[in-house]
Amino acid sequence: MTELEIEANMKLSDWSIIQEAGQQLTPCYGPGYTGLVNLGNSCYLNSVVQVLFSLDEFKQRYYARAEEVLAGGPPVANNDFTMQMCKLSVGLISGRHSKPPTDEPANEGADNNKQTNTQKGIRAAMFKMLIGKGHVEFSSNRQQDASEFLLHLLATIQRTDRALAESDSLSLVSLFQFQVEERIQCMESGQVRYVTREDSVWRLPVSIDDATNKCRGKHHYDNTMCWAITFVVVFVYNLV
Questions:
Q1: Entry's InterPro entries (predicted)?
Q2: Pseudo-torsion of CA 167, 168, 169, 171, nearest 10°?
Q3: 112: left (phi > 0), else alpha (psi -120 to 50), else beta?
Q4: Suppose 144 and one of 12, 44, 98, 216 were both cysteines; which one would form an S-S bond, judging by CB atoms 3.0 to 4.6 Å apart?
């Protein structure tokens, strides 16, 4: 029990460092500084989307064309993936929803303290519903893996843009593609074979002794190795 308490305290200390607890931080407002509200286990979606829309290629593809797309699209955009991506880009990049709080007089009967009105991020509920439509996991409110959602989102972008004959769809997907070479050697004959494939995530074998979930892992895994899927954003241009 003592060892578990020490480990828990260490994790809490690390989390406090990451969150910069106890430090006086200055909030940032304006274009590009809009967050996303957690809709209930939607942190996997929020983190992936914010990374994607920080890339110039995604800004050019969706934000730069948002006014044109939204003006010429259908009245109801619930099922239009391109329109939802454009709306999301406007919400995250434009700065319309990232303004400094304004002080207003307190309500009658209250004390002299001032009230602050500010919007803490946008809600991507419609986008979440559309991107998860027809998918067993992403249509639910359960926790999901960010790398799996990234692959699902990239596949949706590629499929949608191909249907619309968008010429720059492949360039967006290729930002995350790289080549992996596997070396396979026969222990008896010593012969070696090399296999090359394209991938968008880097899978690394992690020893169970080095895993952060070591205590839980021993109850769930009989083998001595567990596979951790690491989602690496690789900026590779003109690789394929």
A1: Papain-like_cys_pep_sf (IPR038765), Peptidase_C19_UCH (IPR001394), Ub_carboxyl-term_hydrolase (IPR050185), USP (IPR028889), USP_CS (IPR018200)
A2: 130
A3: alpha
A4: 44
Per the listing, tokens 């999901």 go with: 144
Tens-digit pLDDT profile for residues 198-238: 888 887 887 777 766 655 544 444 433 333 333 333 333 33
The DSSP 8-state label assigned to residue 74 in this structure reads -
Rounded to two decimals, the pTM is 0.69
Question: What's the chain's Rg over C-alpha atoms?
Answer: 23
Instruction: Determine the residue type at 57.
Output: E
The domains found in the chain, sorted by start residue, are 29-99+121-175 (3.90.70.10)
The 8-class DSSP code of residue 31 comes to T
Give the helix/strand (H/E) hosting 185. strand 178-185
- The encoded tokens of residue 31 equal 């274009």
